[in-house]
Each structure stands twice: as structure tokens, then as C-alpha cells.
Amino acid sequence: MLELAKINEIATKAAASILEPHGALIHEVKVEPTVDHDGREVLNVTLVIARGTYDKVADGDSLDTLVAVNQRLRAANEDRFASVRWTTEEELEEVGDSEC
Amino acid sequence: MAILNADHLFEQADKLASSSAVGRPRQVDLRRAISAAYYGLFHFCLAAVADEFVGVTRRTSRRYELVYRSIDHRTFRDVCEEAVKPTPKAAFQPYFPANGLGGDIQAFSFAGIELQRLRHSADYAPLPRFGTADSKEAIKLARDAVRRFDAAPEENRKTFLTLLLCPPKTNR
Question: Which H helix or E strand runs over B10?
Fold first, then answer.
């Protein structure tokens, strides 16, 4: 297994390679190891898209990003599946809880 | 015939993810959107298997229903996981082309794994909070995956569907 800092670096570069040519900028990437519903170790990779650029995420980018992140991690001998979650700077700044 | 139409499930997901005219969509709507996205992809696959082995013209037959219902979520995930590996498990290897199932089927499979995991979390896990971007990207993921599957070479599609219907026996 890779260290989280290295995973973050790989995931960031992989996501940027897909998103930035379309103008969607990455503000931050967060990586958290976790366990899925079957008890398998997985990685939660959260992409925080920079303010005002989320509408630049093009059709196809979600899947291309998921594939790129996972393939680059596997090439670096990281076997855990990387789940890619999405949020924006604007969403992170929203105050209060959305109604359940 | 009342096969669940994948596009209708994606459209339902769109409506749920954008459901609030004022303020943010409810958690329940965002979670159901993710669930609908996964089920759109899953039912697309079930229909593809049954169309392949029973036939599109026989969609009202019991045999179609039998094949359609024979694929479970676990098998779907297992086959997707093998499809994305550089080297699949030994039991799968005789049935894979020498160069693997190709980029389109692999992309579809990555989406299958991801959406099943997300769906499970959305439907059952009480702690995670889902945002609008998360839900919308899950819907896009599902639509993109269907496009990639349809774009894959015919032989790779047929191999994937055959593995879903007749997964090689492995020690789990």
C-alpha cells in the first residue's frame, strides 16, 4: 500500500489531467482510507472543485477521472479501489444541515 | 412488458438531484438519485444479457425473465472487478481475450464497481452526507458507462455478458 500523501499526489495529477483541459480546476484533493459494505479496504478520494468552475466538468469527465485515478494508482502498485467523490468549494461553505 | 428503462431511471435521478427549487435538495433525494443511477446501470446490464441470450423479440417471455433475473449484484461486481484487473483470476483467464476486455468495457466496469459501492452507502449508511455535485456526477458516471459499453467491440461486449450469465467458479 502506498502512503496517503503519495496517493493524494497521484490522484490529483490523474484528475487534473482530465479536468483542467476543460477548465474545471481542482481546489483540493482529500484521501481517506475506509472499508466498504463487504469489509474491503477502499480509498475515498474527494475532489473539491474550485469555485466557479464546476460547470466546466464535461460529459465523460466523471468516468475518465475514475478510470485515470484507479489505473495510475494500480500502476504504482496500490491495489485498493479508489472511489472518487465530488464536491465544490461552494458546497463546502454552505452553512447548516440540508434537510434529511 | 415492463422492463426498467435505464434512461428513465437516469432521468428520475436527474429530477431527484435537482429536486429543490429553493435551497439544497434533501439528503433523501440525493441518496435516491445515486441509487437510481446505479439501478439504471444494473438494469441496462440485465437487459443486455437477456437480449443477447434470449432475444430482444422475446422480452415478454418467461425465459427472458428467467435470464434477466439470474444476474445478482454480487456477480455483477465480481465480473466488473475481474474486468479491470491487468491479470484476472485464473478461473477467468481462459475466457478473456489475450489483451483483456478493452478500455470501454474496463471503463464500464470501473463505473459498475463505483456505483454499486455508492448505492450501498446511499441506501444504508447513516453517516455520510451526499452533496449535489456527488449525486450529479454519479448520474453522469452511469450514463457515460452505458455509452462506453455500447461503444465497445462486439466480441468484448459478448464476452462480458457471457461472464455475467455464466461466471467461472472460483473460491470466494
Answer: helix B6-17
Instruction: Out of A36, A67, A87, name the one closest to residue B107 (CB).
Output: A67
Q: Are A19 and A57 in contact (CB under 8 A)?
A: yes
Question: Could A66 and B134 be called an inter-chain contact, meaning their C-beta atoms sit closer than 8 Å?
Answer: no
Q: Given the C-alpha cell 429553493, which residue does it identify?
A: B22
Interface touch A63/B117, C-beta < 8 Å: no
Integer angstrom CA distances of residue A62 from A59, B126, B153: 7, 25, 22
Report the candidate in B53, B134, B122, B66 with the shortest Cα–Cα distance to residue A92: B134
| CA–CA dist A17, B45 (Å, integer) | 30
The continuous run of DSSP H or E covering B104 comes out as helix B102-124
Name residue B154's amino acid.
Answer: E
Burial B42-74 (b: 16+ CB within 10 A, else e): bbbbbbbbbbbbbeeeebeeeebeebbeebeee
Cell numbers for A8, please give them.
Answer: 493524494
- Residue B112 — φ and ψ, nearest 5°? -60, -45
**Model confidence over B118-136: pLDDT tens digits?**
999 999 999 999 999 999 9
Q: What is the predicted ipTM?
A: 0.93
Q: Does B110 touch chain A (CB under 8 A)?
A: yes
Rounded to the nearest 5°, which phi and psi values hold at B69? -85, -5
DSSP designation for B5: P
Question: pLDDT tens across A3-60, in order?
Answer: 999 999 999 999 999 999 999 999 999 999 999 988 999 999 999 999 999 999 998 9
